């Protein structure tokens, strides 16, 4: 009998413990599991928790926390990709560092400029980019808390050239006005520098070209002032020299004006149908005396499919004058000059060839530059300023075309002007 009572009591206790365990203890295990999964960013298979209504409420609350967290993750990912898109679109390089000079943010332009393989957030700057000027600039910005500006030279490994970069560094400050980092913008000014150099070279060249004839003219004026009554022959000689140099000055100014006009944004073309053979013959006629003086033979060869083209006739005439002038200048006595026109696909090629002195391989790529002369002394002596081919190139480009040169020293030269037949 006692045994039976004891067994019933034990049974009641066991059932009570089981009920309590299921209602109070078991849900906590499940909840712990749920929280761990949510913490890991995993989606639990279910949010249903065994046990009483309280435990189920906790399960539902966890489900809404999970949903909210997912929504936040989505928003953050969206913002992050938006920021990356904006940073990627910024043409300038961008670098953000903290007060200990660790990289916080970079964009693609910066990574390309410094040859980094990808974003290097969190890495000390010194471990990824070593540049004395940049280090100094960041150190000074962080130390003084003031915006700074500097210029860097970077070697471009692809083109083996030097890039010039302007860097602006601005400090980042917190609410207490302490400097907590710096933002740096890198702007490539290589092209600006190049243009600046071209401009100053141009001014130097023009001054140099003007100075020579001017000083010769002044010299002779002084001679005449010192001796106002020279002999007839002496006077004739002096006046002839003065005339030659004042003509040279005039030509130089004309060429400069022509170039300036061609380079200006409002340079226009008066297009019309040009008969190529007629154009060639007219130019040759104008040069007859000079050709005869050197006993030069001229051959005009126009292929039937290149008999006409649409172009600015006056400017084309200027092109041929310049090319023929060079051919005559650099031809030897009894040489031969050829003026040719032919079709090359949709383009018309006008060329002037001679069998004269030719141009060396080193000089050839540069002859279309302003003021470039292969043989300075000889060209100047022949009255050249080195602007003729620059003018030719500009006129070709204005027509949407280009120029080509082929030459061999001692054998001769061919200059081609390739123009669209129907611009
Ligand atoms: P400009 O034409 O202004 O009077 P230039 O003839 O010296 O002066 P360009 O016509 O621009 O200048 O020619 C540039 C240089 O190219 C010349 O100085 C010369 O060295 C070289 N060159 C041009 N054409 C020929 C040619 N047909 N044969 C040999 N060298 C040439
Ligand atoms: Mg010339």
Question: What is the strand and helix layout of this fold?
Answer:
Elements: H1 2-39, H2 53-89, E1 93-98, E2 103-106, H3 108-113, H4 125-128, H5 132-144, E3 148-156, E4 161-173, E5 179-188, H6 190-226, H7 232-263, E6 271-275, H8 276-286, H9 288-293, E7 297-302, E8 308-312, H10 313-329, E9 336-344, E10 347-354, H11 376-381, H12 388-398, E11 402-408, E12 412-420
Parallel strand pairs: 7-9
Antiparallel strand pairs: 1-2, 1-5, 3-4, 4-5, 6-8, 9-10, 10-12, 11-12
In short:
This protein is of the alpha+beta class and 423 residues long.
Strand order of the largest sheet: 2-1-5-4-3
Question: How does the helix and strand content classify structurally?
Answer: alpha+beta
The CATH topology of the largest domain is given as Heat Shock Protein 90
Radius of gyration: 42 Å
| Global morphology | elongated
Helix content: 40-55%
Terminal CA distance reads 121 Å
Number of strands: 12
Quaternary assembly: single chain
How many H/I helices? Answer: 12
Describe the structure.
The protein is of the alpha+beta class and 423 residues long. Strand 11 (402-408) and strand 12 form a beta hairpin. 52% of the residues lie in helices and 22% in strands. The longest helix is centred in the N-terminal third of the chain and has 38 residues, at 2-39. A 5-stranded antiparallel β-sheet has the order 2-1-5-4-3, sandwiched between helices. It has a 5-stranded mixed β-sheet with strand order 7-9-10-12-11, covered by helices on one side. Helix 1 (2-39) runs parallel beside helix 2 (53-89), helix 6 (190-226) runs antiparallel to helix 7 and helix 8 (276-286) crosses helix 10 (313-329). The protein is elongated, with a radius of gyration of 42 Å. The mean pLDDT is 90. The structure holds adenosine-5'-triphosphate and magnesium ion. Adenosine-5'-triphosphate binds at residues 255, 322, 326-327, 330, 354, 356-359, 367, 372-375, 379, 384-390, 413.
């Amino acid at each position: 009998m006692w045994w039976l009572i004891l067994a019933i009591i034990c049974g009641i206790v066991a059932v009570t413990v089981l009920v309590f365990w299921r209602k109070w203890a078991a849900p906590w295990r499940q909840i712990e599991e749920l929280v761990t999964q949510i913490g890991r960013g995993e989606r639990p298979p279910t949010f249903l928790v065994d046990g009483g209504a309280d435990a189920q409420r906790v399960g539902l609350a966890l489900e809404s926390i999970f949903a909210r967290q997912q929504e936040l993750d989505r928003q953050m990912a969206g913002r992050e990709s938006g920021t990356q898109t904006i940073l990627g679109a910024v043409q300038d390089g961008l670098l953000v560092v903290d007060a200990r000079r660790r990289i916080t943010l970079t964009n693609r332009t910066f990574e390309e400029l410094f040859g980094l393989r990808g974003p290097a957030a969190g890495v000390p700057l010194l471990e990824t980019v070593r540049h004395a000027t940049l280090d100094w600039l960041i150190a000074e910005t962080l130390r003084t808390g003031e915006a700074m500006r500097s210029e860097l030279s970077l070697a471009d490994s692809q083109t083996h050239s030097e890039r010039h970069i302007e860097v602006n560094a601005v400090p980042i400050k917190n609410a207490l006005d302490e400097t907590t980092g710096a933002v740096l913008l890198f702007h490539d000014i290589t092209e600006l520098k190049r243009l600046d150099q071209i401009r100053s070279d141009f001014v130097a060249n023009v001054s140099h070209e003007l100075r020579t004839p001017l000083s010769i003219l002044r010299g002779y004026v002084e001679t005449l002032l010192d001796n106002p009554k020279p002999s007839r022959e002496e006077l004739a000689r002096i006046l002839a020299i003065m005339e030659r140099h004042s003509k040279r000055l005039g030509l130089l100014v004309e060429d400069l004006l022509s170039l300036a006009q061609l380079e200006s944004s409002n340079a226009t073309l008066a297009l019309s149908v040009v008969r190529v053979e007629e154009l060639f013959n007219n130019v040759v006629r104008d040069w007859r005396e000079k050709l005869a003086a050197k006993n030069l033979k001229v051959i005009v060869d126009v292929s039937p499919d290149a008999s006409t083209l649409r172009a600015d006739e006056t400017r084309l005439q200027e092109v041929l004058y310049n090319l023929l002038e060079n051919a005559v200048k650099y031809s030897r006595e009894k040489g031969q000059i050829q003026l040719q026109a032919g079709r090359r696909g949709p383009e018309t090629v006008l060329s002037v060839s001679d069998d004269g002195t030719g141009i060396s391989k080193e000089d050839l790529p540069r002859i279309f530059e302003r003021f470039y002369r292969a043989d300075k002394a000889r060209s100047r002596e022949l009255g050249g300023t080195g602007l003729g081919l620059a003018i030719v190139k500009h006129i070709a480009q204005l027509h949407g075309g280009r120029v080509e040169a082929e030459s061999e020293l001692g054998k001769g030269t061919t200059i081609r002007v390739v123009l669209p037949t129907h611009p």
